[in-house]
Amino acid sequence: RFSSSTEEKSAVDSFNSSLSSLFTSVSKSDINSSKSAFVSSATALEKWVELAGLTGKLKGF
Questions:
Q1: Where would a tag sit more exposed on the chain, N or C end, judged by fewer CB atoms within 10 A?
Q2: Cα(17)–Cα(5) distance, rounded to whole angstroms?
Q3: pLDDT per residue as tens digits for the range 13-22
Q4: Which parts of the chain are coiled coil (predicted)?
Q5: Distance from C-alpha of 59 to C-alpha of 40, rounded to nearest angstrom
Q6: What is the chain's alpha carbon radius of gyration, rounded to the nearest angstrom?
Q7: Which has the closest alpha carbon to 45: 34, 55, 33, 56?
Q8: DSSP structural state of residue 5
Q9: How far apart are CA 56 and CA 39, in angstroms?
Q10: All residues at 6 or more sequence positions from 51 whose CB lies less than 8 Å from its CB, including other chains
């Protein structure tokens, strides 16, 4: 049951967008944008993990 709610889908979309920005900024060697995109990606992924009920199931995450 992954990403079934609107909120979960929004979190996944945010993660995908942030990850795309991260790849772009890294390929351009833009350190500041890369840092920002990394934090955004991690935050969005954490939110999705929480919404999906996987917090306790992903050890060391």
A1: N
A2: 18
A3: 999 999 999 9
A4: none
A5: 21
A6: 13
A7: 55
A8: S
A9: 21
A10: 5, 7, 8, 11
